[in-house]
């Protein structure tokens, strides 16, 4: 028991924060805690959750991926067009995943092989990818996405649980296993802590970095396809600003933007926390202008909580 | 440790930027309804006139002499509205050339709706190249003000074409934004028999159009349909997915919700997805009149949209510009037509709906 507490102490912090937040909203507006509303929170977390899981892998290496919103847009319009022209939904999903991987790996290539700083490289590619999405469509939305695809990515399975939620759970589980139980995961943490030392110990840093960005692209592509299914229309303008939401979820979940630290577990609940907050503010009818402030304060508080936790831990270690 | 705090601070800065609207560059100077000196101009409160009245007051468009070059600067062609406006300028140019005039209208835009500085550079370039007049649709209420000052010094007339407001422009051409919300409210009130719960999805609350559309809707209900209750009003950043999420939540929270008014069509199309999924009968009304909204109305998705006819708006802007150049006394604000489109008139020609008549030339 003590071991489990130790191992997940960080993650438990965010779960406690989440429960507190939900209790407060539940007291203000009892409707908030009804099963349908709780399901809504999870359902509406899916897109940002997928992006956040992907971006966590990259942030752990000490990098960042600002392209996720634009990558989503490319996948949305490209897969949308293919679907409309009659491509089978399963083939479309596989192609979408491949597409996401290639776009992500290209970011990784710029960073690992051409030595561009992640922020700058992905900021540039964010613009390039967005431009491609507009070019492909001429700015027009792709309409009439086939129902078969929409049901597949966002239809109800297992009672009233949408398949998009299952996708998020699967991707999170895969991400968790990759990070905690494979060599690849260990390398990512190690690269984030000290890239040079990792390289000197014989790890192929470039390859692992490109893979991390590629996998982030895969999660992003899935987020895009879920959005395409949810809306039934593919807009080239989709996903603008979503990269910041994803980064916020990872940060709230305890992922350090300087690399080497973070977990999928934390990110998952970070994304849930942000969405729970958003829906809570909506359900309680909080004025839009105040919502901005509330969201910002919660993010700061969550990250600060994390810092304090770290300090307490250090202090305890010293005392021992 | 320091590194971690720094990283945390960076997160905070970025996320605050996010939550305060990551595209806060869009409207710059005015936020929260507080107005700065430059933005104090509110066309909705001016004594504007409609194009028909203007024509009967001023007569034919003065003849154009010599070679004339007009510059039009739009917000961003990513958006269908601005592409249609550009098309409208093209139509007007053809009509002028058919008259035998040597007029060209160059239409450009900023690089995206966040590119305030870039839009100003485009305007300054046009001033340097000595365009004869400018038709500007600024990204924010403030970003083109320095350009307009330069234009005035150079004696170049400036027409402000909806939306985005330029306090120091000569003329504003655009629809009455507040009437936009009123038309939607009137239609919903009538359909609901003056009774029931409704909700509003707003665009970015800092945008003039979003504020006025919402205000028009609320004021109409307040004054004319007291039994209609606006139970919820939230922002979805003009984003389709965010609007759908909002509607999803509301439909469960307010089982008796009867109608949702959205500040634009893109958000309304997202809301339609939520309404369809719920299987409920909720009216969805948008604003803009984009092609997808027309299709959605035809197929029974959206119920109505308020179209402000950018194709004709551009032609009116061009006409007003020529009148200004010809020395006519043009009022500060010219209203352009807008109309509610629902299943009864969705297939009717726009000319018919707004009673469009071709301009006459001297």
TrEMBL record, chain A:
It comes from Anaerobium acetethylicum. Keywords: Cell membrane, Membrane, Transmembrane, Transmembrane helix. It is a multi-pass membrane protein. It is found in: Cell membrane. It comes from the Bacteria. The lineage of its organism: Bacteria, Bacillati, Bacillota, Clostridia, Lachnospirales. The chain crosses the membrane at residues 12-33, 53-79, 91-112, 118-136, 157-179, 210-229, 289-308. This is Ribose transport system permease protein. Pfam families: BPD_transp_2. PANTHER family: ABC TRANSPORTER PERMEASE PROTEIN YPHD-RELATED-RELATED.
From TrEMBL, chain B:
The keyword Signal applies. CDD domains: PBP1_allose_binding. Transmembrane segments: none annotated. The keyword Metal-binding does not apply. Pfam families: Peripla_BP_4. GO terms for cellular component: cell envelope. GO terms for molecular function: carbohydrate binding. Keywords: Signal. InterPro entries: Peripla_BP_I (IPR028082), SBP_2_dom (IPR025997). Residues 73-328 form the Periplasmic binding protein domain. It is found in: Cell envelope. Residues 1-19 form the signal peptide. Belongs to the bacterial solute-binding protein 2 family. PANTHER family: D-ALLOSE-BINDING PERIPLASMIC PROTEIN-RELATED. This is Ribose transport system substrate-binding protein. It comes from Anaerobium acetethylicum.
């Amino acid at each position: 028991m003590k071991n489990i507490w130790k191992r997940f102490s960080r993650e438990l912090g965010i779960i406690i924060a989440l429960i507190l937040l939900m209790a407060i909203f539940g007291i203000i507006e009892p409707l908030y805690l009804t099963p349908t509303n709780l399901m809504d929170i999870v359902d509406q977390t899916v897109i940002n959750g997928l992006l956040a899981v992907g971006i966590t892998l990259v942030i752990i290496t000490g990098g960042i991926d600002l392209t996720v919103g634009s990558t989503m847009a490319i996948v949305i319009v490209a897969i949308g067009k293919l679907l409309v022209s009659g491509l089978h939904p399963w083939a479309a999903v596989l192609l979408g995943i491949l597409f996401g991987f290639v776009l992500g790996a290209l970011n990784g290539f710029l960073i690992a092989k051409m030595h561009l700083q992640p922020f700058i490289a992905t900021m540039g590619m964010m613009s390039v990818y967005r431009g491609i999405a507009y070019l492909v469509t001429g700015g027009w939305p792709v309409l009439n996405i086939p129902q078969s695809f929409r049901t597949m990515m966002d239809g109800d399975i297992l009672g009233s649980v949408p398949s998009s939620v299952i996708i998020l759970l699967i991707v999170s589980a895969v991400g968790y296993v990759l990070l905690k139980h494979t060599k690849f995961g260990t390398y990512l943490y190690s690269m984030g802590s000290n890239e040079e030392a990792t390289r000197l110990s014989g790890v192929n840093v470039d390859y692992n970095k490109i893979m991390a960005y590629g996998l982030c692209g895969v999660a992003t592509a899935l987020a895009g396809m879920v959005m395409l299914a949810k809306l039934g229309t593919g807009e080239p303008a989709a996903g603008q600003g979503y990269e910041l939401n994803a980064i916020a979820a990872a940060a709230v979940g305890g992922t350090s933007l300087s690399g080497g630290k973070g977990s999928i577990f934390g990110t998952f609940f970070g994304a849930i926390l942000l969405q729970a907050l958003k829906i809570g503010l909506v359900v309680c009818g909080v004025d839009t202008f105040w919502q901005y402030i509330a969201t910002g304060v919660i993010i700061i508080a969550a990250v600060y909580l994390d810092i304090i936790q770290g300090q307490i831990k250090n202090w305890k270690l010293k005392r021992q | 440790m320091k590194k971690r705090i720094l990283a945390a601070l960076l997160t905070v800065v970025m996320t605050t930027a996010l939550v305060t609207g990551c595209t806060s560059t869009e409207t710059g100077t005015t936020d929260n309804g507080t107005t700065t000196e430059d933005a104090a101009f509110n066309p909705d409160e001016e004594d504007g006139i409609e194009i028909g009245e203007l024509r009967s007051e001023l007569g034919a468009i003065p003849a154009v002499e010599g070679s004339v070059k007009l510059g039009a600067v739009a917000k961003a062609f990513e958006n269908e509205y601005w592409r249609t406006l550009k098309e409208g300028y093209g139509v007007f140019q053809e009509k002028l050339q058919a008259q035998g005039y040597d007029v060209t209208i160059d239409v450009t835009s900023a690089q995206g709706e966040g590119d305030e500085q870039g839009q100003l550079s485009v305007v300054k370039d046009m001033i340097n190249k000595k365009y004869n007049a400018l038709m500007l649709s600024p990204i924010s209420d403030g970003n083109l003000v320095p350009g307009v000052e330069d234009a005035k010094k150079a004696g170049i007339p400036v027409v402000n074409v909806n939306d985005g407001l330029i306090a120091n422009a000569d003329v504003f051409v655009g629809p009455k934004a507040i009437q936009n919300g009123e038309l939607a409210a009137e239609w919903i009130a009538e359909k609901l028999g003056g009774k029931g719960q409704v909700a509003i999805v707003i665009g970015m609350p800092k945008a003039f159009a979003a504020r006025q559309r919402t205000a028009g809707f609320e004021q109409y209900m307040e004054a004319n349909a007291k039994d209609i209750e606006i139970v919820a009003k939230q922002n979805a950043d003009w984003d389709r997915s965010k609007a759908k999420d909002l509607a999803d939540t509301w439909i469960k929270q307010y089982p008796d919700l009867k109608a949702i008014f959205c500040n634009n069509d893109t958000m309304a199309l997202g809301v339609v997805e939520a309404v369809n999924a719920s299987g409920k009968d909720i009216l969805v009304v948008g604003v803009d009149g984009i092609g997808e909204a027309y299709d959605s109305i035809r197929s029974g998705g959206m119920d109505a949209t308020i179209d402000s006819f950018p194709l004709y708006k551009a032609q009116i802007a061009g006409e007003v510009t020529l009148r200004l150049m010809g020395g006519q006394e043009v009022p500060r604000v010219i209203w352009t037509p807008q109309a509610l489109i629902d299943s009864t008139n969705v297939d009717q020609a726009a000319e018919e709906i707004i009673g469009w008549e071709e301009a006459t030339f001297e």
